[in-house]
Amino acid sequence: MTRKPIIGLLGGGQLGQMLCQAAAPLGITVAVLDAEDCPAKQINHNKLHVTGSFKDPEKIRLLASRCDVLTVEIEHVDTGVLEEVATTGVEVPTADGKGKTMKKVPVHPSYKTIRLIQDKYQQKEYLAKNGLPVAPQMAIESGDGRVESLKLAASRFGFPFMLKASKGSYDGRGNFKVRSPEDFKTAVEEMGDYLYAEKWVPFEMELAVMVMRTEDNNGRLKAVYPYPVVETIHEDSICTKVFYPPRNVSEEVKEKAQKVACDVVASLWGRGVFAVEMFLVDRQVIVNEIAPRPHNSGHLTMEMVPQMSQFKAQLHAVLDEVPENGLTLTPRVPSAIMLNILGGAKPTSHDRFVDLANGSFDQYTDVYVHLYGKESKPGRKIGHVTATGFSSVDQLSSRISPLIKCMDEIRA
Ligand code: ATP
Ligand code: MG
Ligand code: MG
């Protein structure tokens, strides 16, 4: 076996941790740039890790100098430096150790993709330009013009509409539902600058599709491979549950969702896995947003598609070693449900949920607990549980209803 390229990872949260879990048995080394005690480093020790922020240009250069390819577990990174290391390169010692030379380090997915996705407004403008379905949106003026601009948004979209931060948001932090003109003042005070308004989508359901994207060394798309579509439940704008298959959704809609997700991902640049979040409304799918990395909606692939979980897919895609023949993303179980473990009022609030989950499997149901080693804070994602069943998703849901009820109580 030849030496596998070393992957440098920006960000060592739970996604990075699960990426490292997938990498170890494949003999792949992952060097992580994040804090010393981040979840990824808790389970993966090596001398190549860099301690610091994934937003710090110097630290990104240092990581790049130690690796053969860079990838991300979070999109809020410095794409200027990523472009620099991919195009100009980083300084490294020459083979004889006497001088310095430049080494180019590819970034996957491309810094272009990460840059586009970082800005949710630009991301959707781009999708609309490419003929992909998105909700109508408009940029909100910065500074003093904001309230006038909100009035215009209200006259275009009606109430309620969604006000969103273009950059830096996650788990709904950065979204404000504007219900009436009385909300304008609070919205402006709470939301800062660089905002956009989006028409409210009265969706029946939210769907998501993970897609693996492969590309040759010249940046030409090789293939996009969709995972099965899942139903995602968001409460207070944060994902709480994921169901496979989506409940009461026709095959036609599922195929449409996979097709739209593949078209979205084909329009981007670079290798890796991507999540495409969508709304289902009147049998049409509308793209909400893209994540250029493994995603909460794909956690259940670890048990549902064990031959190629979203984390394995990220590794194989980034290293360009996806088996073109024989790759299947077909689930090995007929149903699966993922429940996020969100921190409750007290640091120990979720303990009873974990105890219950650990005792919840039976001959029809498997239950897998994943704790990330993060400090518990109210509403913070600190772990998840995946249940898989040998029957329908509705039967699985009723079998694990005590678990669902327990998590809902802790979150409340
Ligand atoms: P993530 O953690 O997924 O990155 P985020 O902070 O980027 O979240 P969004 O995905 O924009 O936030 O929105 C979070 C949730 O808010 C959506 O999944 C959906 O439930 C709701 N939402 C967002 N936009 C709209 C809309 N235009 N109409 C109705 N509901 C919406
Ligand atoms: Mg987002
Ligand atoms: Mg989202």
Textual characterization of the structure:
It catalyses: 5-amino-1-(5-phospho-D-ribosyl)imidazole-4-carboxylate + H(+) = 5-amino-1-(5-phospho-beta-D-ribosyl)imidazole + CO2. The protein has 412 residues and is an alpha+beta fold. It is 31% helix and 27% strand. It is built from 14 helices and 19 strands. The strands form 4 sheets. Strands 11, 12, 13, 14, 15, 16, 17, 18 and 19 form a 9-stranded antiparallel β-sheet that branches. Strands 3-2-1-4 form a 4-stranded parallel β-sheet, with helices on both faces. It has a 4-stranded antiparallel β-sheet with strand order 7-10-8-9, with helices on both faces. Strand 15 and strand 16 (284-291) form a beta hairpin. Helix 4 runs antiparallel to helix 5. The longest helix has 16 residues, at 251-266. The termini are far apart.
Low-confidence stretches: none
Helix content: 25-40%
Work out the helix count: 14
Kindly name the structural category: alpha+beta
Overall, the morphology is globular
- The count of β-strands is 19
Strand content: 25-35%
Compute the CA-based radius of gyration. Answer: 22 Å
Mean pLDDT: 96
Small ligands present: adenosine-5'-triphosphate, magnesium ion
Distance between the termini: 52 Å
Largest sheet: 9 strands, antiparallel
Layout of strands and helices, then pairs:
Layout: E1 7-10, H1 14-23, E2 30-34, H2 39-43, E3 50-51, H3 57-65, E4 69-72, H4 79-87, E5 90-93, E6 100-103, H5 111-118, H6 120-129, E7 137-140, H7 146-157, E8 161-165, E9 175-178, H8 183-191, E10 195-199, E11 205-215, E12 221-226, E13 230-235, E14 238-244, H9 251-266, E15 272-281, E16 284-291, H10 301-304, H11 310-318, E17 335-342, H12 351-358, E18 365-371, E19 381-389, H13 393-399, H14 401-411
Parallel strand pairs: 1-2, 1-4, 2-3
Antiparallel strand pairs: 5-6, 7-10, 8-9, 8-10, 11-12, 11-13, 11-15, 13-14, 14-17, 15-16, 17-19, 18-19
Bound molecules: adenosine-5'-triphosphate and magnesium ion (2 copies).
